[in-house]
Amino acid sequence: MSKLVICDHPLIQHKVTLIRDKKTSTKDFRELVDEVATLMAYEITRNLPLQTTTVETPVAKTEAKIVAGRMLGLIPILRAGLGMVEGVVKLIPGAKIGHVGLFRDPETMQPVEYYTKLPTDVQERQLIVIDPMLATGGSAIAAIDSLKKRDCTQIKLMCLIAAPEGVQAVQEAHPDVDIYLAALDERLDDHGYIVPGLGDAGDRLFGTK
């Protein structure tokens, strides 16, 4: 079974509380999501491989560590995933960015892929699929399915808030994909919203509601 990591740093938890508040403005919501994404990126990149190089400081030559091999690929799920990308890029400016677009079929309630654009070397990168909300897990599973069909094997999932139902669904569908969250909430309601959650992340990020 995949690893579930709750990023419980005090600054993350403080900012998530402000994100949840319905009185938080669109501007502040965007900024807070961006900041939490940066803080979470520290945790999700904790085990990146390192290699030794030689640098010359103003005082002497020394051996030091740098990240080994290729950098990361960020795969936001459109549209809400876009709100977390810049926060990660601030920390990892060399990351390449792909996109997966999904919508939910109103009759079957299943996610349908309508757009995918990935880096040409996506199979060689460690990928982070990004979506603020992990509710039923349907979109995350579909996005990961899409990457695996393209022979991607190094995949992690990064979300702000999740319901237990979504975590279980992703772990059952993709037991090799570790999940990183800022908060694990109580449950889903009858409409598929996370409780207590934060409402619709996309609408709050882009001011569309």
UniProtKB/TrEMBL annotation:
UniProt cross-references to InterPro entries, sorted A to Z: PRTase-like (IPR029057), PRTase_dom (IPR000836), Upp_B (IPR034332), UPRT (IPR005765), UPRTase/APRTase (IPR050054)
The enzyme's E.C. designation: 2.4.2.9
All copies of domain Phosphoribosyltransferase, residue ranges: 7-208
Positions of 5-phospho-alpha-D-ribose 1-diphosphate binding: 79, 104, 131-139, 200
Annotated cofactor note: Binds 1 Mg(2+) ion per subunit. The magnesium is bound as Mg-PRPP.
Any one GO MF annotation of this record: uracil phosphoribosyltransferase activity
Presence of keyword Transmembrane helix: no
Regulation affecting activity: Allosterically activated by GTP.
Reactions catalysed according to its record: UMP + diphosphate = 5-phospho-alpha-D-ribose 1-diphosphate + uracil
Keywords: Allosteric enzyme, Glycosyltransferase, GTP-binding, Magnesium, Nucleotide-binding, Transferase
Keyword hit for Glycoprotein: no
Pathway this chain belongs to: Pyrimidine metabolism; UMP biosynthesis via salvage pathway; UMP from uracil: step 1/1
Top-level taxon of origin: Bacteria
Cofactor list: Mg(2+)
First and last residue of the signal peptide: none
Binding of uracil, residues: 194, 199-201
Enzyme class name: transferase
SUPFAM superfamilies in alphabetical order: PRTase-like (SSF53271)
Pfam families from the UniProt entry: UPRTase (PF14681)
Known role: Catalyzes the conversion of uracil and 5-phospho-alpha-D-ribose 1-diphosphate (PRPP) to UMP and diphosphate.
NCBIfam families, sorted: PRK00129.1 (NF001097), upp (TIGR01091)
Family to which the UniProt record says this protein belongs: Belongs to the UPRTase family.
Protein name: Uracil phosphoribosyltransferase
Source organism per UniProt: Paenibacillus arenosi
